[in-house]
Amino acid sequence: MIEQELIYLIALTKMPKVGPVMAKNLISYCGSVEAVFKETKKNMLKIPGVGQVFVENFAPDFAIKDAEQELKFTQKNDITILSYLSDDYPKRLANFDSSPIVLYYKGTSNLNHHRTVAVVGTRQPSEYGRTMCDRLIEGLLPYNVLLVSGLAFGVDAAAHRKCVDVNIPTIGVLGHGLDRIYPAEHKQLSSKMIENGGVLTEFPSGTNPDRENFPMRNRIIASMSDVVIVIESKRKGGSIITAEFANEYNKDVFAVPGPVTEELSEGCNKLIKQNKAHLIESAADIAYIMRWEEIDAGKVIQKQLFVELDDVETIMMGLIRDNKELAIDALTYKMGMTPSEVSSLLLGLEFKGLIKTLPGKKYMLA
Predict the structure, then answer these.
(1) Which of 70, 75, 88, 321 is deepest in the core (most CB within 10 A)?
(2) Contact at 8 Å (CB) between 200 and 229?
(3) 47: how many CB neighbours lie within 10 A of its CB?
(4) Would you tell me how many other CB atoms lie within 10 Å of the CB of residue 166?
(5) Which long-range contacts (CB under 8 A, 24 or more apart) does 238-243 make?
(6) What are phi and psi of 76, to 5 degrees?
(7) Who's near 28: CB < 8 A, 6+ residues apart?
(8) Strand 227-231 versus strand 325-327 pairing type
């Protein structure tokens, strides 16, 4: 995406009363993000959802100037801006209407990793919670996952640190801009994460870690992940909000059970009791439910020597492998693409000898 288009996108996020749904609506009706800023007020009023108050308060000059400063900040600090139209944008997140039109990312990992796991939990875990966090992450190592969490105190930080220790790529999703790390105590940890993972936010620089930002951060954690694991939580809190988002998004939720006498077990036990989460004792439980197989590094390397796949093909191959077999309608939903786009990709993979067709328009690895 050219620099000027990025400026327009950033500017749109800085306009009052313009959320992700409204922004995408404006771009869709106007034809491009640039056209939004050049549209007449008369024509803008014809767009569904756009009213007189919105048009009167539409101040593009100020927003564009602010966006230009934001772009300079990202360039100076080696931050990547991911447009919702970009191939690098998290595709799991892109499937949702409320996904941000711009993300700010500093890191090295592919955000479209074929297996993504979120770990969330209390800010004050017990020794049991910390032990289970370490055990689960060590158990995930053979399954080649990307781990996502919120870089908060407690379970989040413990999960990130363990990933750094065992060399699992890990992403911290933040509730503020990348001009700071909150809490400040995690600045060194975030630097290590950037070497094999990264930090990600929808908020521009200068955004404070205000309370209202964190539910928005939690929805990104849930939507970016295939699996959400809750390790110790009170009956209410950010971890439960993330689990609720995950259930709403049809993600698989897992919860670590705990003693019924402990307050930190109430949230997890309630999720399990209400059938909103699978009970989990080890990473093997996730692999069983998700039908994951351990990655045979030798086989992966051997395949890569003979067949080169682009990012979208890699994701599709991962979905088919993880589910043993998938119907074309399920692939269409999971990939967030049109049936014709999915059919074309499947045909290409079949020509490469990587998949085979089963009765009922289902596909499995060859």
Answers:
(1) 70
(2) no
(3) 18
(4) 12
(5) 238/120, 238/150, 238/152, 238/214, 239/120, 239/121, 239/122, 239/155, 239/267, 240/267, 240/271, 241/215, 242/118, 242/120, 242/218, 243/120, 243/271, 243/276, 243/277
(6) -70, -30
(7) none
(8) unpaired
Total-model pTM? 0.79
Q: What is the pLDDT of residues 233-267, one digit of tens each?
A: 999 999 999 999 999 998 999 999 999 999 999 99
Cis amide prior to 339 (ω within 30 degrees)? no
**pLDDT bracket for residue 145 (50, 70, 90):** very high
φ and ψ at 323, to 5 degrees?
-105, 5
CA-to-CA dists, residue 251 to 145, 291, 333, 360, angstroms: 16, 14, 13, 25
- The sheet with strand 325-327 has its strands ordered as 325-327, 362-365, 355-358
Give the whole-angstrom CA distance, residue 180 versus residue 182: 7
Structure-block tokens of residue 36 = 């939004």
| Predicted confidence (pLDDT) per residue in 24-65, tens digit | 999 999 999 999 999 988 898 888 888 888 888 787 888 999
Contact call for residues 322 and 145 (beta carbons, < 8 A): no
Q: What is the β-pairing status of strands 355-358 and 325-327?
A: unpaired
